Amino acid sequence: MVDINVVFNKHCLNYKGKVKLLCEHKGVLPKVLLQVRQIYDRIDTESIVDADNARLDYFKNNSGVCTFLKMF
């Protein structure tokens, strides 16, 4: 948080002033009581172009729940 404040104070200048918003929402992850096991599999592909289709084919053939994150 300190680094963000330094950037804000040094570089975020406008002729009408500054506005800083603080998020008060803490989220819901601390409220989850069950421990969920997460399994990550590495899927090798021939090229980056084929990566999305290779992931989809892998999860279609290995039944289970698929959560696909294009970017994280």
TrEMBL record:
A GO MF label: rRNA binding
Protein's name according to its UniProt entry: Digestive organ expansion factor, predicted
Domain of life: Eukaryota
GO CC, alphabetical: small-subunit processome
GO BP field: maturation of SSU-rRNA from tricistronic rRNA transcript (SSU-rRNA, 5.8S rRNA, LSU-rRNA)
Origin species: Artemisia annua
UniProt xrefs under PANTHER family: ORF PROTEIN-RELATED (PTHR12933), U3 SMALL NUCLEOLAR RNA-ASSOCIATED PROTEIN 25 HOMOLOG (PTHR12933:SF0)
